[in-house]
Amino acid sequence: xxxxxxxSGKPETLHSAASFAGNVAVLAxxxxxxxxxxxxxxxxxxxxxxxxxxxxxxxxxxxxxLVAAAAALRYEFAIPLAEDDATAAGLLAVCLCIVCLVSCLxxxxxxxxxNMFVGTGDLAALSPYLWLLPLGVLALGLYNxxxxxxxxxxxxxxxxxxxxxxxxxxxxxxxxxxxxxxKPVGLLWxxxxxxxxxxxxxxxxxxxxxxxxxxxxxxTAMRRAACRYRQFPxxxxxxALFNALSRQLPVLMLGYFFSSSVVGYWLxxxxxxxxxxxxxxxxxxxxxxxxxxxxxNADIAALSLRVFRCLVAVGLAPIxxxxxxxxxxxxxxxxxxxxxxxxxAQWLAPWQFFVFVGLPxxxxxxxxxxxxxxxxxxxxxxxxxxxxxxxxxxxxxxMLGVALFGVSGxxxxxxxxxxxxxxxxxxxxxxxxxxxxxxxxAIPFAALVWGVKVVLGNDAAVAASTAAxxxxxxxxxxxxxLSHLRAQVC
Length: 490
Prior knowledge:
With about 500 residues, this protein is an all-alpha fold. The protein is about 80% helix and about 0% strand. The chain is built from 18 helices and no strands. The protein has helices at about 15-50, 50-65, 85-115, 135-150, 155-180, 185-205, 210-215, 220-230, 230-255, 260-295, 300-335, 340-360, 365, 370-395, 400-425, 430-455, 460-475, 480-490. Helix 2 packs antiparallel against helix 9. The longest helix is centred in the first third of the chain and has 35 residues, at about 15-50.
């Protein structure tokens, strides 16, 4: 392993810790506003487009997710880790070239055998629009590549603006094209337009600081950078494909063994449980990657442990309360016919908690270039998911499959957390102590919700008590976080 970038060796100051929290707040805020725009636009778009139109978009994004999972061969993850800006610029150029090449290859595949691929089943509805797939690969690959260039340069405000711009432009284009009766292609073009505007935003706002280094990139520098970080395409590339397949596996297997309603319960419960991970954990992970790469030889252990404690403090109590009251929450908020989705959520909640905690920390694999271990971990995840869902399918018990999925996922992600903290040099004994302390703090709130559930047995009362307990918990346990967020808003 090549020598790491020199660091001062000084411990992080309170100012740097506040800066870390501020960067997370900025990124999470941008993502949250983008999600809010999407939620507010849903009633409008659902009246413009039919469920079949949205089905075409869902199939398109599913295929795109598999194809674009390694559009830059995961070299983009090495950009924040490069020892100097010249090497990082070389990696950026390598990523851009690979993304363009992969997009062209996707175009050739669509041209030569696209109709064969989508000739039957639900995929057939996408056939007239399959030519948009290479454009999606290009847009998504460029967006991800530029994102990690900005992460290296700590342009987190620009990243937040890009997330917001992507959502806003996509919604406007989808609405306008839908009103003009361009259906369902309006949904596809809207998504592509939003993604493309995000790329333009990142390029204009984020790359100004790197013009000097980008202008000096040579073919020799690109080859040297690609060779230096060749572990990323070798190990992280297959890992990305495993992740993409893992995300699609539950839908595919539940749809194969059971009815569409089972798939619907899964989709809704997983989507709602995964929202905090998408908004908070992803933002923390991007900031953590930049900070850990900078301090890999200094205080990465303290930084990793601090992030772990923060995520446990934020996530444990809400997940515990959700595990108790999920069926009542889903029934009261979404309708009684969605109660079964709440039962699914009870089994998936522990898994989502450890994903919430472990996803940012998993960047330690990239920082320390332990990509073989990351590859093996994701392979184990894929095999465990397949086994869990297969057992449930063979026994014709969807709840068994979901339960095995949730339990095995929680155990594997806990093991991953222990491993990455150990790699960072943090004391693994702190993990148990942190979980124990936060569990004790959450038990009174959990007992209150459980009491309301047992005594009253009313869905609305249980949902209201859960929401109140979560709010009170955050006010009492996270006053510093709330104060900092208020300062960011003001």
